[in-house]
């Protein structure tokens, strides 16, 4: 923060142009590179007291170490609060930003089968034959539930998507332009339906939770090998929800 005299502010309000007019400096709220609005930091304080403290800190007879004997004064604003909370509020609407990718196959722990999609029919099934998938990783400003990822069938515009019709939550394969998913806003449910929270334990066995429909996880049934979305319901050790990421 910089303090300036009033007359300096008046003199520096604008920048003169060749034709004599004044060109005002405008704070640009948007990031020029990608058109995003900058994030905003909000500090919330309860039962706050604000005091202005003014006076001389020392004089030449009893100098302090900071001024080296020339004398100093202080003019401070002191704020004391019972409690405070700092919150980062994303202003650009893009809370998820793609940062890297990994080509791999995704193998189911219980059945040893792989995720395989049929894009033309929007269907997904389990197959004994590996199919390469691209996992796109995202940087998030949200509370951590796992690594946000988007699952793509490599070499195509086909992605896994979690959908809901009435009370039914299901998984399907859908085409989408990759550029559209480079940055995803949590307020855009259509785009957020492509996002899954990927979480792993020490064994590297991985679960995929829908970012849009929290509490719903990708599962392959042991009985009919159907790929679907199901509630975990406290069954953390259920291998039907667990997958292994095998790097290509």
From TrEMBL:
Q: Which Pfam families match?
A: IL1 (PF00340)
Q: Pull one GO CC term from this UniProt entry.
A: cytosol
- Sequence ranges of Acidic residues compositional bias: 21-33
The record, for SUPFAM superfamilies, names: Cytokine
Q: Name one GO biological process term.
A: neutrophil activation
Region annotated Disordered sits at 1-36
Q: Where in the cell is it found?
A: Cytoplasm, Cytosol; Lysosome; Secreted, Extracellular exosome
Keyword Secreted belongs to the record = yes
- Record's SMART domains? IL1
- Keywords, alphabetical: Cytokine, Cytoplasm, Inflammatory response, Lysosome, Mitogen, Pyrogen, Secreted
Q: Which Gene3D superfamilies match?
A: 2.80.10.50
Q: Name one GO molecular function term.
A: interleukin-1 receptor binding
In the record, the note on similarity to other proteins reads:
Belongs to the IL-1 family.
User: PANTHER family in the record, alphabetically?
Assistant: INTERLEUKIN-1 BETA (PTHR10078:SF30), INTERLEUKIN-1 FAMILY MEMBER (PTHR10078)
The name under which this protein is listed is: Interleukin-1
């Amino acid at each position: 923060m910089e303090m300036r005299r009033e007359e300096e502010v008046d003199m520096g309000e604008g920048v003169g142009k060749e034709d004599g007019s004044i060109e005002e400096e405008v704070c640009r709220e948007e990031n020029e590179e990608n058109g995003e609005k900058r994030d905003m930091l909000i500090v919330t304080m309860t039962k706050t007291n604000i005091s202005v403290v003014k006076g001389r800190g020392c004089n030449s007879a009893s100098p302090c170490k900071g001024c080296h004997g020339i004398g100093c004064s202080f003019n401070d604003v002191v704020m004391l609060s019972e409690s405070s909370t700092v919150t980062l509020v994303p202003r650009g609407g893009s809370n998820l930003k793609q940062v890297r990718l990994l080509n791999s196959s995704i193998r189911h722990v219980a059945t040893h089968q792989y995720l395989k999609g049929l894009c033309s029919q929007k269907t997904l099934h389990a197959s004994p034959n590996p199919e390469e998938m691209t996992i796109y990783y995202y940087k998030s400003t949200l509370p951590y539930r796992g690594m946000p990822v988007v699952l793509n069938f490599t070499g195509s515009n086909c992605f896994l998507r979690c959908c809901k019709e009435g009370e039914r939550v299901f998984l399907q394969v859908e085409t989408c332009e990759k550029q559209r998913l480079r940055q995803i806003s949590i307020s855009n449910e259509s785009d957020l339906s492509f996002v899954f929270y990927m979480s792993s334990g020490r064994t590297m066995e991985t679960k995929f939770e829908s970012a849009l429909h929290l509490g719903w996880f990708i599962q392959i049934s042991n009985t009919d090998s159907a790929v679907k979305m199901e509630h975990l319901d406290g069954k953390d050790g259920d291998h039907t929800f667990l997958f292994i990421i095998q790097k290509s």
